[in-house]
Amino acid sequence: MQLLETAFWSAGGSRHVMAERLGFSKSKANTLIAGLIDQGMLAEYGMQPSSGGRRAENLQLNAGLGALIGVDIGATSLDVAILRPDLTLLAQHGEAADVRQGPGVVLARVRTLMRELLTQSGLSAKDVLGVGIGVPGPVNFAIGQLVSPPLMPAWDSFSIRDYLREEYAAPVFVDNDVNLMALGELWRLRRSLSNFLVIKVGTGIGCGIVCHGEVYRGAAGSAGDVGHICVDQEGPRCHCGNVGCVEAMAAGPAITRMAVDAANAGESAALAACLREKGRIEATDVGEASRAGDAAANGIIQRAGNLIGQMLASVVNFFNPSHVFIGGGITGIGPLFLAAVRQSVYQRSLALSTRHLEIQYTPLGMQGGVIGAGVLALHETLKVRGVAP
Amino acid sequence: MQLLETAFWSAGGSRHVMAERLGFSKSKANTLIAGLIDQGMLAEYGMQPSSGGRRAENLQLNAGLGALIGVDIGATSLDVAILRPDLTLLAQHGEAADVRQGPGVVLARVRTLMRELLTQSGLSAKDVLGVGIGVPGPVNFAIGQLVSPPLMPAWDSFSIRDYLREEYAAPVFVDNDVNLMALGELWRLRRSLSNFLVIKVGTGIGCGIVCHGEVYRGAAGSAGDVGHICVDQEGPRCHCGNVGCVEAMAAGPAITRMAVDAANAGESAALAACLREKGRIEATDVGEASRAGDAAANGIIQRAGNLIGQMLASVVNFFNPSHVFIGGGITGIGPLFLAAVRQSVYQRSLALSTRHLEIQYTPLGMQGGVIGAGVLALHETLKVRGVAP
C-alpha cells in the first residue's frame, strides 16, 4: 500500500502532500486516506505548520497499531528496545553479553528483557505488532536463520523465529546486524540517499549496503562480508584460514592486542597504567590515551584506520557510494580514527569515486541497531499483512 | 508501459501468458494489447507451440518500429551493429581503432560505419529508432558525457549525443562499455538473475554490476571501477598514481609485457619465435603458446588469472553475486586463465559467498557490447517516448 509506505518513510505529511508525492488526484488520496483511517492504520497527529488558511493535518501511522520490539545482538553486547510505530523509543536496555554462549542462553536473556521492557512500558505480548532481531553473522533472510556464522557457530541454522513463536503472535524477522544499521539510516534519511554503505567495526568488521534505495543482501545473504578482504598478503593468519584479513588486523581485538603489546614493550605509560589497573585494555582506553596525546595510542589508531581505509578504497572503487557511515564500538575511539580512514580512502580510490564521497560516523550511533530492527519489524509486518508493497 | 516491457524482456509470449505475468485480467490485457497493436508497438509473430486447441499467438515488439544502432567503442577496437527490435543482427562491422585519437577521429569513423551498415541493410537514418553507444570510461549517464576517463582524456566532457544529433532524429544514449555488457547479459537471461557481475579484461579492467535486477551505475557513475583495486602493496606504479593496481599487473598490456620479458630472457622458445616473426606479442599469442604446452606462457596466464581472482575475491566478499561473467579480449586466451581466476576466488572468498557462485566466460562473447548497446537504445527510447517505465 503506497500511502502507508509513504506515511512511514516520510514520517507523515498532509493529505495534500501525500497525494502530490504519489501523483494521486486529491479526491483519490482523500478516499484512500479515509479508508486507512477507518481501518486504524493511519491517524492525524498534531498540526503541520501551514503557509496560510487553515492549518494542515499531519497523517502518520496510527500509534495504536501496537508496539515494535527491536533487538540488536552483537558479539559482546545485547540491546533490546520497545518502539512506537514512528520509531521513537518507549523503553531500552543494553548490557554486555557473549554470543558464543549459544542461542539458548542468549535468547533466554533476550526473552526476559523483552518481557521486562514491555511491562515497564505498560504493555504486554499481545500489544506487539512485530519483532525485529539483528545478529552478527550472515542470515538467510527468507527463513530467518543464520548460515555458517563464523563468530557464533552454535547458532548455525537455529530458528530464532520458532524460539519466540510461543510467546508472541506477532511476526519475527531476523537480519544481519549491519543490514539493520543500514535500514535504520535509510529510514532516518527518509530514503533521501539511494546508494550508501554502513561499516560496523567492533569485534568483527561488516558492511550494510543500500543500493537503488533498498538494503542489498546478496545472492546468498552474505553481501557486505568485508571483514575478510585481504589488506596485507604478508599479514597474520585470520580465524577464517586466510592471511591478512582486515578484521584480523584492525578490528577491536587487534586494536586491543596492539595496545597490550605497546604497554608491555614500555612504549606507552598511559596504556601500561591502564593494563595495570584494569587488567586489560579496550579500544575506548586507546582512544582516551590518544586524546591525551599518547604517541603509541595515536600510532595504533592510525594504523587501524589506514588498514580499514585500504579495504574501503577497494569497496569504494567497486561500489561508488555517495556516503560511507562508520558505526559500532569503534565510534568511541575518537576523531583520529576517522581521519586515518579518510586519508587512506582518498589516497587509494579513484578521483571520480571520491569527489563527492562523504565518510562520517553513523548519525544514529549506538541506537542504530535497535532502530533498524524496529524499522525491519514494522516494514515487514505491514508487508506480511498485505498493506505495504 | 508494463506490457511492452514484458514483451521486450521476455522475448514475447501469448496474450494469456502476458496477462498472467503482469497479474492483469484477461479482458484488461486484451484491451491493452489491442491498443498497442493499433499504435504499431506490438505485433503478432509466428505461432507458439500450444498444448491443444488453437495455437497461441506470439506477441513481440513490432519489427516495423525501426532499427537500432549499437556501437561498442573499446580502447583499441570499434564495433558497430544494426539490430532489429528483437536484438537480432541485421549487419555488423568490427575493426581495430585507437580511442586516444580523440572523439573527432573516432566518431567520424563511427558515423561512416553507421551510414554504410544502414545502407547494407536497406535502411536510412530516418528508420533508426534509437542509438546506444558504449565507451571505455566512466559516464555521467544522465547527460551522456564521459567524466575524466583515464584511458581517453581527450573525450572528457565531450557530448557524443550532440555530435550525432544532426544526422539522426532518434535519441542517442551513452554508457560505459562494461555496463552495456551487463545490460546485454541481463537481456539474454530474460532477467532471470538479479545479482551478477560482468568483468571485462582488455586494455583495462572494468566491472558491470547488476543489482536488484537493474544495472547499477553508482553515485557518480563510476561504479565497477575495479581496475585500480590494489592486489600488491609492493607492486609496480600504475598510470593512476597508485601502486599494485590489478589493471597494471594483469590486464592485456601487462600480459604482453610479461611475455616479451620471457621471450627476451630465453624462457620460452614459442614466445621468442612470435616476437621475432610479428615484432610483438599479443595476449592471444600467449594463449596459443600455453595451449601448445609452453611453461612460461602457462605461468604468465596463471599469474594474471590469480591476480584478477584476488581482486575478485574482495568484490565477491562484498557483493555476493550469484554469477561472475568474464569477457573482453582475455576470453581468447583459453581455459587456463579461467581456472586460475576460480582458484584464487575460491581460496580467498568466504565459503558462503562462493557456495553457489559460478564464474564463467560471458555467454554473449565479443557481441556482448553491441547487443548491450542495442538493449540500451531500445529500452531508453521506449522510456523517452513514455511507453516503457
UniProtKB/TrEMBL annotation, chains A, B:
A Pfam family the protein falls into: ROK
Signal sequence segment: none
Supply the Gene3D superfamilies for this chain: 3.30.420.40, Winged helix-like DNA-binding domain superfamily/Winged helix DNA-binding domain (1.10.10.10)
Stored InterPro entries: ATPase_NBD, ROK, ROK_cs, WH-like_DNA-bd_sf
PANTHER family the record matches: GLUCOKINASE, ROK (REPRESSOR, ORF, KINASE) FAMILY
Spell out the protein name for this chain: ROK family protein
